[in-house]
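Data availability excerpt. The first of two example chains:
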Amino acid sequence: MLWIVARIKWIMIVSGVLTATMIYAAVAPEASLQSTFGETLDEPLAKIIVRNWGLLIALVGGMLIYGAFRPPVRGLVLTVAALSKLAFIALIFSEGAKYLGHQAGIAVAVDGVMVLVFSGFLLTSSRSKKA
């Protein structure tokens, strides 16, 4: 796990950029839903919610990039990002395999890897602080 600690800055930058691409949902909510889930919601309220969802995810991506350059906030940033990604994964799996054949399936896999890497960093760095 020490390799994660040694490379966390670049891991956070790459993860942040990938996560921030969900700004697409704020710009084009219908197209984003179609590509991610294979479905759309046409109601005006749905567009507001999807735009907000995309913006919040993009903000987590921005936090990851910020945390890459600010070591004192990395623990908080990685914890928030991991919890957000875990919630998304849990919500997707709560629907069974329905959305896994779309880009949501790729997002689940990539987010799962990110959660494991972030958790590895948090566990390793907290152990090294105690030692």
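And the second chain:
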Amino acid sequence: MRLLLLVMSDGRREYLERTMLSLGGILADVEHWVIHEDSGDPADAKWAAGKFPGWRVHATGARSGFGGAIRSAWDLIRADYPDATHVLHWEGDFTLNRPVEVRDMCAVLDDRPHLAQMALRRQAWNAEEIAAGGIIERWPGDFIEIKYGHTVWLEHRRWFTTNPCVYRAGLLDGGWPDGAESEGHFSAEVFADTEMRAGYWGARDEAPWVHHIGDIRAGTEY
């Protein structure tokens, strides 16, 4: 197992700095460290390279938007990191609340090929989630709790999320959709296979693993 940590950034330096600080406890589980910078400003990539030594900082020449940035990052991984078996995908405005066994998440994916990803639950964000008390509470009937040994996770078919998650590197081979609402289109492609599911790490009643700090959205083409 060779894990690549991909941090997606778009020039919001304060958010990226807080995100990176929170990730220190899981870096020992990672073989490759990549920051993908899509602000379009070379100064942001230069700042990141100086601030986070040991990380590869890859910058797009111009802002490519949400979907374009993922396509660029996936192309980079396929070309330059063929040994990577799993990708820990991390948007640059999420902090990790507590330690997590990332390799256990990867092991569950390897043991359960019907799972497209294993994500880390964030706090309630939009009005509907807040009113319900959380993401899972918003659609309680859509999530099935699975227990295997010392691991617990929830399985569902509601969406594929680019919030912090792990997926097998083979997922990159299909590419990421063009155009607006690309995350929704990718979800539809994944779940076109009626056997496929996605996972959230941890039990139904656990507190969120990650915290979304991105009050200001800078990306486009969601």
